[in-house]
Amino acid sequence: MAAHSKPRPMGFLAEGVIAVNRFVKYGADEKHVLQCGANQRAIGVSVNAAAAAEDKIDIHLLGGGSKVEAAEAIALGQFVTSDANGKAEVVDAADEFSPGMASEIAAADGDIIGIELQATVPAAAE
Q1: Domain total of the chain
Q2: Is this model's pTM higher than 0.85 or not?
Q3: 4 belongs to a structural domain
């Protein structure tokens, strides 16, 4: 059984280096994306890596499922946000933007987990 729903894929161009399975945000225009920094408003998750600016990159957009690299232990159903490197970390402060909810458990940094991509701002840390 899949650990996430059907992805919503879309192609973009990278504005720089982007690792695979990382949260991404819009770049300078609607055709470009950047790897997210800490708590930035992600539009999705990278499906492949980009080695340089203008490389083609596929993104799974909000409203579907994907796989993301965890930065720490994450429990099933926890809301996550982006850390400084675009990895998923648990929402730990009120009003942080969350681009998704974990649909699989991460035991540690580096685990790849299923995620339901949905724009949410939890009222408080989970």
Answers
A1: 2
A2: yes
A3: no
